[in-house]
Design goal:
Na+/H+ antiporter like fold; about 80% helix; antiporter activity; 2 domains; about 400 residues; transmembrane; mainly alpha; 20 helices
């Protein structure tokens, strides 16, 4: 038995539990505890965890499971009726983010590669944080909750063309086979979505046996979630996108609703490791040396994202009250931006300084999200007329 592994798991669990209890008293979300635990236990502080690639892989499983749960909660017929608004809103957000980055990049003399990459990065909000927030506040099925969820899902889907763009910028071309496979995968998804809306796609066999057997429930969920994630990845698409589709597939059959309860502990465990990996990757020495620049950029990102999204939601017909609130919800930079930045660094699109700076800013925006939302809500309450316009 590897007692070092046991010791590591014990220390990680104890640290997260202690930090989570403190944050619970402060009414802050638990993901902050996971990030802080990663920083404390990482190689730059206590060095309890040194094999960060393994943690990263476990963390990726957390994102995949999260997307599976999101898919299971989507009411596809209702979502299809309002499909255009989230799509147009997300594309508008990307264009406005690009315009902002072009202006900033021209002033700071950035390359077009960096401008495009950072446009992608700031346009992606955190599904992990906001879906959990909306669920905890009971707003997940409200009008603004559904519209915000739609935008988040569209952002997650856009990670595919973003990754293709990064590869093109790095290599100067796209492999024909890679592009063809991605196009075929995209078409397959569109066909899948069409039939999912029009017909019941799935009838789980032996459903009565499954309902009575918790072990079979868990493994059926894993087969559907990870199986479709693997298929999606093979087509050159995001594995998380495949998991989202698996969740939609399951969500259309009422007899599979027990999967949500069966897999909740796994989602909590793996998602905790994702945020733990975020903390592990932070270079504390770099963050300390550049704390002023990081703070300034973080504040600028939160303000700009809030303004951009508030204008977009107002353009989609929301009240000013809901629009400003939605802007706050989508103000942070999300987990898929970590994927983009890591890919850009490995492809040589950005250097180590830009990588560490972006990593620090993404983490900072995540950690102050709940505080930022609280500030914006207090601002809204002081302007009651906005809620009626």
């Amino acid at each position: 038995m590897n007692h070092g592994l046991l010791n590591g798991l014990f220390i990680v669990s104890l640290t997260i539990l202690f930090l989570a209890l403190l944050l619970k008293k402060a009414k802050q979300p638990y993901f902050i505890a996971y990030i802080i635990a990663g920083i404390i236990l990482g190689p730059e502080v206590f060095g309890v965890i040194s094999n960060s690639p393994t943690i990263n892989e476990i963390g990726e499983l957390g994102v995949i499971l999260l997307m599976f749960f999101i898919g299971a909660e989507i009411n596809l017929p209702d979502f299809s009726k309002s499909f255009k608004k989230p799509l147009l809103g997300t594309l508008s957000q990307l264009l406005l983010s690009f315009a902002f980055m072009v202006i900033t990049g021209q002033i700071l003399n950035w390359s077009w590669q960096v401008i495009i990459l950072l446009s992608f990065v700031i346009s992606l909000s955190s599904s992990a944080i906001i879906f959990q927030y909306l669920s905890n506040t009971g707003q997940i099925k409200s009008k603004i909750g559904l519209l915000t969820s739609g935008v988040l899902i569209m952002q997650d889907i856009l990670i595919v063309p973003m990754m293709l763009t990064l590869n093109f910028m790095a290599k100067g071309k796209l492999e024909t086979i890679e592009l063809a496979r991605t196009v075929v995968g995209g078409l397959a998804i569109l066909i899948f979505m069409h039939f999912a809306i029009r017909k019941k796609l799935i009838k789980i066999p032996f459903r009565q046996d499954l309902i009575r057997d918790h072990d079979l429930q868990v493994f059926l969920g894993f087969v559907l979630c990870f199986g479709m994630a693997q298929v999606s990845h093979w087509f050159g698409l995001s594995a998380a996108l495949g998991a989202l589709l698996a969740g939609i597939l399951v969500g259309q059959d009422k007899s599979t609703q027990w999967l949500d309860h069966a897999l909740v502990p796994f989602r909590v465990f793996f998602l905790a490791f994702f945020f733990l990996a975020v903390g592990l990757q932070l270079n504390l020495h770099f963050a300390y040396q550049n704390i002023g620049v990081i703070s300034l950029i973080t504040l600028a990102v939160m303000v700009i994202n809030s303004l951009i999204n508030a204008m977009i939601f107002k353009g989609m017909g929301s009240t000013w009250h809901d629009s400003i609130y939605a802007g706050a919800l989508l103000s942070q930079i999300g987990e898929f931006s970590f994927v983009l930045v890591s890919a850009a660094a490995s492809l040589g699109v950005i250097g180590d300084y830009s990588y560490q700076m972006t990593l620090a800013v993404i983490t900072a925006t995540m950690m102050i999200t709940s505080v930022w939302i609280g500030i914006i809500q207090n601002f809204i309450y002081k302007l009651p007329k906005l809620s009626h316009n």
